[in-house]
Design goal:
Layout: E1 4-9, H1 13-24, E2 29-35, H2 39-49, E3 53-55, H3 58-65, E4 69-72, H4 79-88, E5 92-95, H5 103-116, E6 120-122, H6 130-140, E7 147-156, H7 169-172, H8 176-192, E8 197-205, E9 213-215, E10 218-220, E11 230-237, E12 242-248, E13 257-265, E14 269-271, E15 276-281, E16 284-289, H9 298-310, H10 320-339, E17 343-344
Parallel strand pairs: 1-2, 1-4, 2-3, 4-5, 5-6, 7-12
Antiparallel strand pairs: 7-13, 8-11, 8-17, 9-10, 11-12, 13-14, 14-15, 15-16
Helix pairs in contact: 1-9, 4-5, 5-10, 8-10
The structure holds nicotinamide-adenine-dinucleotide.
Family: Belongs to the Gfo/Idh/MocA family.
Protein name: Putative dehydrogenase
GO molecular function: nucleotide binding
Length: about 350
């Protein structure tokens, strides 16, 4: 089979560190073009990575290059339009996370992929960790019993990015929930197998963000801080289970950062970072911590899964339906925090 011809739209941080370089490392892939509205950025990426063509307009690139597959690495605001444009041009698409800003956009992306008969997946790269597949098998084998509750956590003490669009509500659609919490929600949803939701409630704050300051991800301007600095929520499932959600760019905690997904089962409990399984046998605590490589770059596995799927040699791991579910959780948490009221679900719409 001839090489998969790939193009990358957006040539910023994630395109350079996690897409173009990994595509270039795969023998079956040719990176045919890069596109960025900032044409200097596009040209620089083309020069640096020896990509034969660069463009400032995605439509022109798709018409002239006709790639087989495209990575979308632009701000969240443009995920839906760019993804649908590429799908309509007959391309398979790997869109960076979060899927989009609204659930309607995520649904449109899913429906367009379905109509066009193309692969659509998303950059939830933690899902590609070997330990997640290992855990999923253990859960499916019943080793945890019934998983009835959990915590989804990504808290930074002072980790407001001082660059890019991370504090720009219009470009991003939100702060830590949509940026980093989304990864942990994706893992929890996958491990819990997408339970139906009965209600969601949450609160959020921007009190630290609005002050401005400096942290381990640079300095930020309080006057231009437009997103939440923390969101704290609760998701009640129709099966009686529940999930606490805690996510922040800046919160007064002891450590620099806390990141985990914990799930509590009737037989055993799980901690994902690092991977541990905890139980009790004959009155004794039994703790098993598994030595998975926590430093591996799972972006590579995400790119490889996309390429293998495009070439018909693998199934896509992160599906559009799963992405829509995660987007609906994000939207519900923001809606509740914005109104101060629970969001009630019914009729199986989440
Ligand atoms: N999977 C992950 O862990 C991960 C990590 C970082 C970023 N991301 C996601 O990747 C996306 C990009 O993030 P980034 O950090 O690379 O941002 P960035 O600001 O570094 O780069 C974005 C690039 O997109 C370009 N751009 C903007 N609008 C465009 C358009 N309409 N057409 C073409 N180019 C356009 C900008 O000029 C810029 O060069 C975001 O959605 C972010 O959430 C995911």
């Amino acid at each position: 089979m001839s090489k998969l011809r790939v193009a990358v739209i957006g040539s910023g941080q994630v395109a350079r560190t996690s897409h173009i370089n990994h595509y270039k490392s795969l023998p079956d892939v040719e990176v045919s073009a890069v596109c960025d509205v900032n044409q200097n950025a596009a040209k620089m990426a083309a020069d640096e990575f020896q990509i034969p063509s660069w463009y400032a307009d995605a439509g022109t690139m798709l018409e002239e290059i006709r790639p087989d597959a495209v990575s979308i690495c632009v701000p969240n605001k443009f995920h839906c339009d760019m993804t649908c444009l590429c799908l309509e041009h007959g391309c398979h698409v790997l869109c960076e996370k979060p899927p989009a800003i609204t659930e309607e956009e995520a649904e449109k992306m899913r429906d367009t992929a379905r109509r066009c008969g193309k692969i659509l997946t998303f950059g939830f790269h933690f899902r590609h960790a070997e330990k997640i597949a290992f855990l999923k098998r253990k859960i499916e084998a019943g080793e945890m019993g019934t998983l009835y509750a959990g915590d989804v956590t990504w808290l930074r003490r002072r980790g407001i990015p001082g660059w890019g669009n991370f504090t720009n509500l219009e470009m991003q659609g939100g702060g830590p929930l949509i940026d980093i919490g989304a990864h942990m929600l994706d893992l929890a949803a996958w491990l819990l197998d997408y339970p139906e939701v009965s209600y969601i409630c949450a609160s959020s704050s921007d009190l630290i963000g609005k002050q401005g300051g400096t942290g381990f991800m640079g300095s930020w301007d309080g006057a231009r801080f437009g997103v939440e600095d923390g969101l704290f929520g609760f998701i009640q499932f129709s099966n009686g289970g529940s999930l606490h959600v805690r996510t922040s760019f800046a919160v007064n905690i002891a450590d620099k950062e806390e990141r985990n997904v914990r799930l509590y089962g009737s037989k055993r409990g799980i901690s994902v970072f690092p991977l541990g399984i905890y139980g009790d046998e004959d009155g004794q605590s039994v703790n098993t911590v598994y030595p998975f490589d926590e430093t591996k770059d799972w972006h590579y596995d995400c790119i490889r899964n996309f390429v293998e799927s495009c070439m018909g040699r693998a199934d896509i791991l992160v599906t559009p339906d799963q992405a829509v579910y995660v987007q609906k959780l994000i939207t519900g948490l923001y809606r509740s925090a914005g109104t101060g009221r629970p969001v009630i679900y019914g009729n199986g719409n989440l």
